[in-house]
Amino acid sequence: MPAKSPQPKRRAWGSVPNLPWRRPYGHRVASSDFVTSVSVRQVSGREVVTPQSSPRKRPRLVRIPSLQDHVAALQQWIADGMKPLVSSCFGPSVVAFDPTSTKVAMWQTVLVTIVLYDALMVPLLVCFEQLHHGMCTFNGVLRLMDVADVAFVVDVYVQLFTGYFHNGDLVVRPASTRRRYIRSRQFPLDILALLPLAWLPIDGSTLCGALRANKLLRLRRLPQYTIAFDKVFARYFKFCKIVKVVGALCVFCHVMGCLYVLFGIADDDNKWKLEAHVAHEPLATQYVAAVSWVLGIVSHVAEGVIPRTVWQTLFMYTVQLGGFLLFVYICGTLFMISKCDANNREQFDAKLNQLRYVLSFHRVPTEIQDQAIEFLEVQCTFHPRGESQDRSNMQLLCPSISKEVKYTLLKDTVTAVPFFKSCSAAFIRAIIDVMETRSLPTNFFVCRTGDHGEDMYFVQSGVLAVLIDNVKVRELRKGGFFGELSLFTNQVRTADVATATFCILHRLSRVHITRVLNAYPEAEGPILESVEKISEELESKMPKGGEMARRGSLQYSDTALRNSTSNMRSAKLLLSPMADGRMIGSGIDRKTISVIAGALRSSTQAEPLWTRALLAKPLDRRKRLRCVWILAVMMVTIYNMFTVPLVCAFELMGYSMSVLLLNTVADIVLWMDMYGKLNLSYVMEAEHILESKECALHYLRTDFAYDLACIFPWWVFHPPSHESLRFVRLFRVLNFLAEFEEVSTFVRINSRHRIAVLGMGLLLSYHIAGCLAHTYTRDAGFADMEFGWLPPKSIELKPIVNAITGDVDAYKYSNGTVIPPTSPDVNRFLLLQYARAVQYGAVCITNLGRTYEPVTFAEYSLAFSLMLIGMLLVSLIIDEVQKRVTASAVEQMEFLSTRSRILHFLKRQKAPAELHRRVLAYLDFSWSAHRGADINGLVSELPNTMQRDIYGYICGPILEMIARLDHVSDVYEPLITTFLDHVKIQLYGQDEMIYRVGDIGDAMYMLLQGNVATYVEAYSQLRELNQGDLFGLASLNFSVEYTAHTDNATARSACVVAIISRKTVALLNQIYPRFADGVKKRSQRMGRQATMHAKAMADKKAVVPQAINPDSNA
Predict the structure, then answer these.
(1) Domain with 1056 in it: what CATH number?
(2) Is residue 724 part of a domain?
(3) Range of 202's domain?
(4) What is the pTM of this model?
(5) What is the pLDDT of residues 730-782, one digit of tens each?
(6) At 689, is the secondary structure helix, strand, or coil?
(7) Number of folded domains in the chain?
C-alpha cells in the first residue's frame, strides 16, 4: 500500500501567519561561496543584513516593512482567518458564483425589498416619535427589521464568493473573490450596517429609529439591486418600469412626509405645518395626512400655505424640485415604454404614407398599392413574423449564436427529409448554414410545372398551395418542405407551388448541397442510396410510371400529413371527384388515399357534441360586418364605464326601468359578442383559419375565461348587490385598445382621431374619479361644512323607502321637507351632486383647481390614491399626445431636418445664392412629388414581382414602344423583366440641366411627367418632348466604347424622368440584338411626327382670322 503523502498542517484560527517580510522574496542571485541564495530588496535607500542558513553563514538583505505592508498583511490575515470559518460553516467552495447568473439576480431582488423596508421604517420611527409617542413599542416592526439582517449576513458570504470581471475576463477563483471583497470599501460598510446598535446598553425607548439608522448604508447598493430586478423581470418590461416609477414616487412622498412631520403641528402663528386636527388622530391618519400633503405639492393639486422660516422654505423648494424631477422621470419612462412598444412604428407609418403618396402620384392602380402596403405591413419591424425583424435581431448577435439559433429552429425540419435522417448533426448544421431566406408575398408562384428545378424549399411560416392542372391538391405549412428530389435528379417540376399567404421560406440549392457534400464526403453514399430508393419507389407506384408517379413525391414534402387537421382539408380535396368523374389525387397511390380517408373518417366521427352549436361557416374577421360589430361592443363598454359608477355612487340615480332595459341590451350585445368570437376566424402563422372547430378552440384557449368573468351575472348569487356587482363589466375596458386598433384596419384613423379618443378617455376618468369620491359619502354621510371634503347637507336628499315594497316613496330635505320622487328638485340635486363630484375628480386627476381638504383617514387615503393615479395619467396623456402629434408629421420632420442639413452645408461651403435657390426649388418639388422620399429605395423593399408591376405602370409608354419592335414577341418577357429590374426614377427641378453636349452618354432617359426640351446650341433645333418620349439616345451607340451626348437636355419645368443605364441597354441588346437600333429608329420617327404636328398646329394658329372689334375705328 503506497504511503500517503504528508498533508500540510492547517493553521488554526487566530494563529499568526507568515507575514510577507518573513518570507524570502525578490529575485534570487546565485553565489560562488556556498551561499544558497540571497534576497535583495531596497526600501528608502536602506538595506538591512540578516543571517540566512547556509553551509557558510552569510548575511542576507531584507527590507524594513512599510505601513502599506502592514495593511496588506492585516487584510491577508483576515482573509486567511475567515477561510476555515467559512469552510466549516458552508463547506468548501470550488468555484465562485457567477455574477451574471439568474440566481444571484433573484437573491439581490429579495435584498432590495428588505433595503426598501428599512428605508421606509427608519424615517417613520425617527420622525413620528414626537407626534406619536410609543413608536418603539411596535415590537413586530422592530423584530422584522432585526430578523431581516440575517439575509445580509448571508449576503456577506455571497459577496465573498461572487465572481467579478477583470479586463473583460470573469474571475471565479474563490481566493481572488474573497481577497477583492475584503479589500474593497464595500466590506467595512456592510459590516457597519450589520452592527446591532440597538443592543447597546442605551435607553432605546425613544431612539429605536436612530439606533437602526446604520441600516441606511445599504441604500448605496440600490442601483445594483435595481439592475438585478430588471434582469429577473426582463420578460415583463412594462411591469418593471411601472413598479419603479410608482415605487420612486411613493418613497419620495414617504420620506418627505416624515420630514414634514418634524416641523410640528400648525398653530395660529404658522399654518404651514401639519393640520392641527390630526394632532390627536391615530398614527395612520397622521401618516397619510403628511404623505398626502407632499403628493399634493408634487402634483400641484394642493398649493400649500406660504412657509414662514428659512428651513420651511428650503424644505418646500426641495419638495417642489423633487416633484418636478419625478414628473420628468415618469414622462421619460412612459416615453421609453411607448417607444419600445411602437418599435419605430412612427417611422414605418411614415414610410407607408410616403409609398402610398408616391404610387398615387404616378397613378399606380389601387390594387397594386394595397398589395405593396400589405406586404410591408406584414414584413415590418413590429410584426412578429417579419423577416426584417428576424434579420435585424440576428445581426445584433455574434455569428456563432446566430447560427445556433437558426440551427435550433430548422434542425427538426431538415432531419424530417427522408434522405437527411441518417446524417450527422455536423452535416445538418452545415446545410442550415448555407440556406438562403426568402420572404414572399401572397399569390406568388415559387415554382411552375415544367420548370427545371435545382432548389428545395423549407417553410418557416405561411401557407403554400400545391396546384396540379390549376386545382389545389394540398397545402404546405410551417415545417413542410418540397422540391427535395430536385437537389439530386434532373426531373422537371410536376406541380405549381404558390403562396396562399405571406410566407418565409429557406432555399437550399444544388450548389449548396454540392458544397456541403464536398466537405462531408462520408454522407454522400447514404444520401444517394436513399434518393435512388425513393425514386424507384415512386416509379413503381403506378404501372405506367412517368410523370404521374413522380407527382406522388409530394407526400414526402409534409411530415405533418397524418397529424395535422389542416391536411384533412386537403384530404377532402383528394377524395372528392371532379366533374368528369376522375379523382383529383389520381397521381397518389390508393394505399395513401385509403390512409388519409380513414384518418378523415375517424376525425369526423370523434367530433364532440358542443361543436353542433357552432355555425357551419365561421365569421370572416376581414368583412366589414366585423367593423360594425366591434363598434357596437365598444359603445357598450363606454356605456358601462359611464352608467355603472353613476348608479353605484349616487342614490338619487336609482335603478329605473330605462336603466334596466339599457343594461339588458348591453348584456345581450356582450353575450352575442362571446358567441361571435366562438365562430370568428383568426390568423395563425400568416394563415387565415376558417374552420369552426379550430376557431372555437382558439377562443376557448385565449380570451374566453376573461370575457366570461366580465359578462357573467354574478348578482344571481346575491340579488341585493345587483348594482355593485355590475362593476365587473368595467374590466372589459382592457380590451378597448385592441378593439380600437382592429377598427383602424377597416377605417383610416389619423392622429386627430386618436387624440379625440384619448380626450374621451380623460373625461371618463374624471367621471369615475368623481363617482369613487362620492361613493364614500354613502358611508360617511354629508357634512355640515359648506366647503368641506364631504358634500354639504344643503344638497342632500334622503330617500324614504317603503318597508313593504322597498320602493322610494319620497325624498326628504335636510330641514325635513318632503318631496315626491317625480319632483324636478330630485334631478336638480342629482346634477349638483354629480357636478361637485366630477369637479373634485378633475382636480385630483389633472390639477384643474384646488381640491377640498380631507379630514379622516379614509378621505386622506382616497385623495392620495386619486392624486397618484392622476399624476401617472397626466404623464401618460402627455406622452400619447406628443407621440400622436409627431407621428402625424414624421416624414415632414425628417424632410425638414434633411433640408436644414443641406442648406447648412451650402452655407458652410459659402455656395452662391443662385445655387441656394436651385437647391430649394429641387427640395420643394421633391416634397410635393415624393414627400421627400426616394421612390427607388421605397420600392426596393418589395418583392421583384411587385417592383415590376409598379415600374410597369410608371414606364407604360416605353413598354408599349418595346412591344411594337419587330419580332420581339419571342423574347418579350425576359426583355421586359430585365428592363424593369434595372430602371430608376429621378426628379429634376425647373431649369436644371439633365445633360450637356459632350457629357458621357452613360444612360438613356424617358420623360414621365413635366416638360423637357432638347437643343444643340443657343436653343437651335429646339424640340419639346412629350410624356413617354425618349432622349439621350447617344447611349444606344455601341459602335464605340465611349460615346458623348450631341445635344443638351434641360427641364423646362419640374419633371420626373426614368433612367436606363448603358449597361442595362447592353443587357437588353444581348437578349434582343436589334433593341438599340429599333428603339433609336422608333424614337426618331416619333420625334419627326411630333415636330410635324407642332409645325402644323403653329401654321393653323397663324391663319385663324382674328375677331373684329365693332367699336374700333378700323
Answers:
(1) 2.60.120.10
(2) yes
(3) 67-302
(4) 0.68
(5) 999 999 988 998 898 888 887 788 888 888 988 999 899 889 888 888 778 88
(6) strand
(7) 4
